[in-house]
């Protein structure tokens, strides 16, 4: 049975006791050496055990290094499936798409002809690229604030609940587990302009509901409503952040006469600002790649043209690649989107860090 590291009394000339750490070999002041033997045992060895033989010390050092190397190899073996998948299906695919973005690629024949910057020049001249990019940016500006506000609202409701919080947390998270096809089908019925349940509910109050999925002005707001259906993942992140806000801050503010609104803006928002910042970046990246719900509702029928208001960047990229088989141009679009996301994220990071409060930051 492995024994614990023992504390060795250092000779009186050093004036203190030395506690030895695991996995290290060193000679502190005095004549004490700590080494890790095989099996992870930590032993304290004095010059009485080793004498002044440097070979013995080197042997202990080699054993410690061998044990650490064995641990590192075992760790890499465990994560090797993920590493291989990342290198092949992520890095490898990205490098290949970068290569064919500068070529004319024929998938059927497997032929690649150099094209230089022709694909990128074609992107600039294609009006559908600019239209899809504008629709995507408009959707992102509209969807991200709505998701942040709605998710934070739900998280604050759950944070105020007692024992029943677990039940409601599960119920709120169920929509996140709903397949995109089922979500699109449900909202296709709910947002029907003639017989949809949403317009039927509005008619009870004398409100004439719009043609959600037909009116170009309401297509993107209707997609935002569908996005809010699956906001529970962001809600849970906010809930975890709210649980970590010290309660004594609210008690002191309440004693000072601060109301709920003031406590929210002066305590809650600053304390969870890193979480808000993180969610804004993640949701922005996701909004710029919006595809599944919009495609299932507006672009699934290949026999009909996609409405201009519903032509998002990822949908047009998909159509170029798998409908027109223009993989070179589609790859160029993908890398243009990558650069746009990178620039937007850098801007958000540069600006957002000025408004984020990190615990322990005295600046």
Structural features:
363 residues; two-stranded antiparallel ribbon; MetI-like fold; mainly alpha
Question: Your description of this structure?
Answer:
By secondary structure, the chain is mainly α. The protein has 2 domains: 1-100, no CATH class; 120-352, Orthogonal Bundle (MetI-like fold), CATH 1.10.3720. It has 15 helices and 4 strands. The protein has helices at 47-50, 54-100, 118-125, 127-160, 165-173, 180-190, 197-203, 216-229, 232-243, 247-255, 260-271, 273-287, 292-299, 313-322, 327-352, and strands at residues 32-36, 42-46, 103-106, 111-114. Strand 1 and strand 2 form a beta hairpin. The radius of gyration is 30 Å and the shape is flat. The protein starts with 31 loop residues before the first strand and ends in an 11-residue tail after the last helix.
Question: Segments where pLDDT lies below 50 for 5+ residues?
Answer: 1-50
Tell me roughly what share of residues is in helical segments. Answer: 55-70%
CATH superfamily of the largest domain: MetI-like
Radius of gyration: 30 Å
Q: Which CATH C-level class of the largest domain is it? A: Mainly Alpha
């Amino acid at each position: 049975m492995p024994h614990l590291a023992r504390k060795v009394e250092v000779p009186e000339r050093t004036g203190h006791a030395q506690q030895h750490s695991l996995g290290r070999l060193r000679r502190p002041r005095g004549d004490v050496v700590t080494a890790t033997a095989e099996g992870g045992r930590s032993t304290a060895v004095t010059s009485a055990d080793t004498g002044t033989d440097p070979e013995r010390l080197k042997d202990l050092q080699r054993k410690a290094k061998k044990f650490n190397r064995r641990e590192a190899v075992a760790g890499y073996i465990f994560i090797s499936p993920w590493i291989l998948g990342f290198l092949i299906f992520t890095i490898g695919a990205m490098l290949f798409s970068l290569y064919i973005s500068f070529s004319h690629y024929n998938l059927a024949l497997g032929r690649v002809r150099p094209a230089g910057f022709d694909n990128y020049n074609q992107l600039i001249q294609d009006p559908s690229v600019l239209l899809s990019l504008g629709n995507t940016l408009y959707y992102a500006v509209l969807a991200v604030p709505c998701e942040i506000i709605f998710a934070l609202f739900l998280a604050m409701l759950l944070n105020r609940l007692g024992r029943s919080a677990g039940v409601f947390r599960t119920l709120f998270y169920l929509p996140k587990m709903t397949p995109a096809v089922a979500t699109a089908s449900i909202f296709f019925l709910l947002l029907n302009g003639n017989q949809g349940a949403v317009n039927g509910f509005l008619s009870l109050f004398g409100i004439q509901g719009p043609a959600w999925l037909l009116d170009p002005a309401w297509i993107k707001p209707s997609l935002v409503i569908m996005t809010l259906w699956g906001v529970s993942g962001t809600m849970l992140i906010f809930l975890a952040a709210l649980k970590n806000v010290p309660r004594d801050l609210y008690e002191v503010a309440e004693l000072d006469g601060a109301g709920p609104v003031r406590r929210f803006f002066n305590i809650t928002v600053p304390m969870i600002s890193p979480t808000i910042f993180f969610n804004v970046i993640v949701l922005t990246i996701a909004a710029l790649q919006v595809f599944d719900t919009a495609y299932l509702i507006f672009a699934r029928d290949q026999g009909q043209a996609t409405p201009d208001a519903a032509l998002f960047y990822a949908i047009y990229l998909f159509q170029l690649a798998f409908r027109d088989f223009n993989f070179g141009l589609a790859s160029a679009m993908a890398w243009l989107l990558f650069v746009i996301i990178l620039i937007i994220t850098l801007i958000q990071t540069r600006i957002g860090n000025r408004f984020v409060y990190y615990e322990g930051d005295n600046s």
